[in-house]
Sequence to fold (499 residues):
Amino acid sequence: MGLNVILSLLIICFSVANIDAAGKKNGFVGFTNKLDPKKTFNRSTSSLSNSILRDECNLPGELAEEISRYKPIVEGIINASVNGIFKKRTWRTLARFVDKFGSRIAGSDNLENSIDYMVDLLKKNQLDNVHTEPALVPKWVRGKESCWMVSPRLEKLSILGLGSSIGTPAKGITAHAVVVESFEELTKLGEVVDGKIVVFNEPYISYEKTVKYRGYGAIEAAKLGAVATLIRSVTPFSIDSPHTGWQHYQENVTQIPTAAISIEMAETLQRMYQAGDDILIYLYMEARNLPPVMSRNTIGEITGHQHPEKVVIVSGHLDSWDVGQGAMDDGGGAFISWNALALLKVLGLRPRRTLRSILWTAEEEGLVGAAAYFHDHRNNTAAFDFVMESDEGTFQPLGLSFSGSSEAGCILKEILKLMRPLNATQFASPMDGGPDIEFFTNIGIPGAALLNANERYFWYHHSQGDRMTVEDPTNLDMCTALWAAAAYVVADLSIDMPR
Fold:
């Protein structure tokens, strides 16, 4: 064991002893019950709510003091992750995982083999109650695909079929193209679209606003008689690199093949179309949708020492698209989520409530694993105290984004003050980057997502570029530290997070 880890353990032990002593001095019942039971600031008690009404985050003194006493423990966690035995560990374990399995699309043997691997790994790291829970997931297979501009000149187009797309006929589709920038332009073309391939060259505004073209472009084009669609990749940056993603069909609307093309090619085709060129395109896709198959969410825990029935979730999704390695989306989020628990285990830190790491399956196909888990646990939602997810990169951590009650938000803001050694004290609301846990936050369970310097996230998202090269060891160490420290403090507080 390294000197830094020994120092971290000594600091933590000394801190726990001091918190115990402080609790007894102030009439608290030790470290495991630092506040007077009559002063638990939960939803049924007006003290915290009234404080917020008077001053948005003027926490009661006892609660602010309790949180502040975690400072040495948090510093010990950070030191062990950034400088100690856990230094570069998240990066090493993630690199080994993605190099071994590569991409992990839902329904594939590769994903299921990677889940088996993670079960063994969590057990080797001595997490509690390691198991999987089933989820029925879609099985979409890409197959071979190619696309050529045949006229007015010959050029091969880089494409990636969009998830759930059907394939072309066996001999492919050859058709003239029309190019539009919006659904409004498409509608104005009217019957001109019939029998054509529609190319969307929609400008990138933001992922949230622009992704509708990927999701619904095939529907809107098919309504007007189009035979296929090519969608400009939803990304602000490209080096002729298409970005895939899930798309949708609509009942009573003809299903047509649809694929992503690069920014560069979408812009080229639009310039040619506006110049009056007659563009002829050949598209071949073997994509097909097979019957759903069973997959699994992967779970490991640190069992709470006082309220094991209450749970704080930390999570990321283990599946990825079938291109690249899924290192960023969402290998990093999944690996800081289980490494956070492994770090706390090494440091001997067991909070009051149970910490549960969940590695979701089939997020990319529409939050399928999370939906199955939420459905299976729908009668026990009172047990979930707080939920966390990282699914928008693991670049330099800045803090947390949050959804929930103002009371819980104020508590989280106070906890984030402890993250100054990481310079990760920022608080944002509403939560952004935790799609799987929205099942919980939508019914009032407070939750948070990793806030990080992810300006380049959508450069690599759903593309061949999502590989280990994107990940930085120090950033992963810092994300793991923030994840472990924040989750531990929330899980160990003497009060539940208010709803």
About this structure: Residues 3-7, 17-55 have pLDDT under 50 and may be disordered. The first helix runs from residue 3 to 25.
